[in-house]
Amino acid sequence: MPANEPTALMPPAVPEDRPRAIVSRPSTGDQIFRMILRASGWSVFVIVGLILTFLIVRAAKAFHLMGFGFLTTQNWIIYSPHHFGIAAILPLGILIAAIAMLIAVPTGISIALYISEYSPLALRKPLIAVIDLMAAIPSIIFGIWGLFFLEPRILGFDSWVGRHLGWIPVFNFRLNTSVPSNYATSTFIAGVVVSLMVIPIITSLSRQVFSQAPQGEREGAYALGATRWGMIRTVVLPFGRGGVIGACMLGMGRALGETIAVTLIVSATFKFNYHVLETGGNSIASTIANEFNSFPDAGSIGLSALMAAGLVLFGLTLIVNTLGAIVIGRSRSGQATG
Amino acid sequence: MTALEPTTLPLDDPASDRPLRLRRVTAEDALTLGGSAIGALALDWVLYERVLPFSGVLGFWFCWYLLFLACYAAIGSLQWNRLAVRDRVVAVALTTAGLLAVALVIGQVGYTLVRGSTVVRHTSFFTHSMADTGALSPLSSGGIEHALIGTLEQITMATVLAVPLGIAAAIYLAEVGGRAARPVRTLVDAMTALPDIIAGLFILAFLVLTLGLPKSGFAAALALSVTMLPIVTRASEAVLRLVPGTLREASYALGGSQWRTVLTVVLPTARSGLTTAVVLAVARGIGETAPPLLVAGYAVGVNTNAFKGWQTSLPVYIYYEILSPEPNDHIRAFGGGFALIILVLILFTIARRLGGGAPGELSRRQRRKIARQASARGGRRA
Question: Do A329 and B189 make contact, defined as CB atoms within 8 angstroms?
Answer without folding.
Answer: yes
